[in-house]
User: Which sequence fits this backbone?
């Protein structure tokens, strides 16, 4: 998903230079230059937020600057520089490039996008790159985790654990039978733990959902992502949290889960990790995983049937795949110029070759071989918020309050606000000007690579399109599909 927290450009910014000031009438005219003013106001606002809220903008910004400073020192995999990478990305989304060209070069498109956007995602949005509706009294982080836990609850991992206990490795079962002097009935064998249930995160980003779901379920989770920086950053965060270490390295005789890097047949050192690879051609043997999920990731796939077929291949018989998809809804009208413009904004701002409909995704999942267990658009679930039935606009006016209980729609973080203590402040015209000129100053001082501001123009396009698409109801980031691999799975 696109970083929807760091827009840097606005039409009002274009005319906000220092020309309105008479340099001869001011003792220090340079103090009124937009770059200087933006720096002063930004620092002042950050001091207030740092002191009166738990947001910690200084800590996040220092981490952001640390990673930004080394972005061109080995962190880019799509191009030698940020400017070159954003140039190639802009070319693929120019009017001269077709959907077929973007589909054929999807790996380059997606890799360029996440080379550019990942740092801003983590800085402005956190480590989980996805949307969620917020229920009354939920914080942003609580809503994010609930959304992830709900998807994990669809994976039926209890049945996967039972399958490990009932099935297991035949040779190990016979050897255990001989040692116990009994029949191969499981007597004397240790019950397998959830750490032996293997789950795949298809398109894991830097692993925020992967780590949350690992904690929630206790399962072993492998994340797959195309981008090298995301792999390195995700593994860095996994290793930094002692919760993910397997303190008990013993392995039950029923499991086939081995640490590929160990010679003693033990469990892996950590219960979640990121692996670099293409989800269109996954680097795993067939029937490896007990379950799989994807959160707003397979929207980057140029061919949904092929993508879902790869997930099907690496899952065991009876395993479940659950996903949230980015889709166009039935309200989208290809003849409506505003709808078409919004669709293009989302594609350009979020690294998508194209956007599929809910019907296309569901049929693709079925054609890949899955039995469909459930499907619905979770945007339509009751969350305690209110949107104008005519315009779709989110509101808390007198009429809205009759139906409003405090919930907030998924696209609200992208909509402008004048509250300086929320991230939405940056989406009003002043916030857009401040962030734009602050980033230009960083580029001038060589604190940010050349081309970073162009990256934010790209992200802004996606944010504007997503916010409006949510109001109109023509797009959903959370079309839920749950499919099961048949027990008589055929490759």
Assistant:
């Amino acid at each position: 998903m696109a970083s929807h927290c760091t827009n840097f450009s606005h039409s009002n910014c274009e005319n906000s230079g220092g020309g309105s000031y008479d340099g001869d009438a001011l003792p220090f005219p340079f103090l009124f230059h937009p770059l200087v003013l933006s720096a002063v106001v930004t620092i002042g606002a950050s001091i207030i937020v740092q002191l009166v809220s738990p947001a910690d903008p200084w800590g996040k910004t220092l981490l952001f600057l640390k990673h930004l400073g080394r972005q061109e020192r080995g962190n880019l995999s799509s191009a030698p520089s940020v400017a070159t990478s954003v140039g190639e990305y802009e070319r693929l989304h120019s009017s001269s490039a077709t959907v077929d060209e973007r589909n054929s070069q999807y790996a380059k498109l997606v890799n360029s996008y996440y080379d550019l956007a990942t740092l801003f995602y983590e800085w402005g949005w956190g480590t989980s790159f996805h949307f969620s509706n917020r229920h009354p009294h939920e914080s942003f982080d609580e809503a994010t985790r609930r959304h992830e836990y709900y998807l994990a609850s669809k994976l039926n991992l209890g049945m996967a654990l039972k399958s490990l206990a009932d099935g297991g490795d035949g040779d190990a079962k016979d050897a255990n039978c001989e040692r116990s002097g009994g029949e191969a009935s499981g007597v004397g064998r240790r019950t397998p733990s959830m750490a032996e249930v293997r789950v795949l995160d298809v398109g894991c980003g830097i692993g925020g959902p992967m780590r949350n779901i690992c904690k929630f379920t206790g399962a072993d989770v492998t994340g797959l992502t195309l981008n090298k920086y995301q792999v390195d950053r995700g593994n860095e965060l996994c290793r930094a949290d002692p919760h993910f270490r397997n303190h008990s390295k013993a392995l039950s005789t029923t499991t086939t889960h081995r640490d590929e890097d160990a010679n003693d047949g033990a469990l892996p050192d950590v219960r979640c990790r990121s692996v670099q690879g293409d989800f269109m051609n996954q680097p795993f043997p067939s029937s490896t995983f007990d379950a799989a999920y994807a959160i707003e990731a397979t929207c980057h796939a140029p061919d949904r049937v092929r993508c879902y077929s790869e997930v099907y291949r690496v899952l065991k018989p009876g395993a479940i795949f659950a996903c949230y998809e980015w889709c166009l809804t039935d309200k989208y009208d290809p003849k409506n110029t505003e709808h078409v413009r919004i669709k293009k904004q989302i594609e350009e701002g979020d690294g998508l070759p194209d956007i599929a409909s809910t019907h296309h995704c569901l049929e693709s999942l079925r054609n890949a071989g899955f039995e469909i267990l459930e499907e619905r658009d979770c945007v339509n679930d009751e969350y305690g918020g209110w949107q104008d039935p005519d315009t779709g606009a989110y509101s808390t006016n007198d009429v809205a309050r009759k139906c409003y209980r405090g919930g907030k729609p998924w696209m609200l973080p992208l909509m402008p606000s004048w509250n300086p203590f929320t991230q939405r402040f940056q989406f009003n015209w002043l916030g857009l000007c401040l962030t734009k000129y602050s980033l230009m100053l960083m580029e001038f001082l060589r604190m940010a690579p050349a081309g970073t501001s162009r990256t934010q123009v790209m992200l802004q396009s996606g944010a504007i399109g997503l916010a409006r698409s949510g109001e109109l109801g023509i797009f959903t980031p959370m079309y839920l599909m749950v499919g099961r691999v048949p027990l008589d799975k055929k490759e």
In short: The chain has a mean pLDDT of 79.
